Amino acid sequence: MAQRLATEFVKARLLLPESQMSKFIQHIQDPHVHHRVRILDNGSREIVLEDENGEAANLPLDRYRNLFVCELSFRLSNPRLTSLIRRLFVAFKGDGMVRRIYPGFVMLDFYAEGAVRRIIELNAGTSRLVFEHRDQIPELEYRFRSTDIEREIERIRARVDLLLDCRLSAVEAAEIMGIDKLLHEECRRLFILEA
Q: How far apart (Å, rounded) are the C-alpha atoms in residues 25 and 46?
């Protein structure tokens, strides 16, 4: 597995209601990462996270009424600090892009509401879609509400009934064999649709 060189948070954003600020502070508790909180004018906050090696990340939390907005744009190389920021990003439903840099390639992770929605690999001037989240609920609801199969089953049953009536009135063996062959095909289709 490739060793990650760095992680960049690009245009990443967290929105925190004032009521979640204490929970946010609890989430940054890590024995290997030290934090300082500065309260600025108008109630805004600045949280500085620093790991044991001296790498730091500045989290500005600008206050707008009862909401704190944290816009992140920095590069980290320490895995412990990167992991802590990513956990905060997921826990507090962040939006934005995270660029993971490896030797020879870059992975772009696009987040929406704390979940990865798309991952793209950039490699020597080419890009490849690795993952894309698709909301399958509308498609499943459409299929659930769709009655096309039920209507097709009803049509097959009507044809089977008609073929059985024709078989009862048939007198020649060749005609009965032809009807039996059609009945066999219709029964096979019915079995497939009902399964």
A: 12
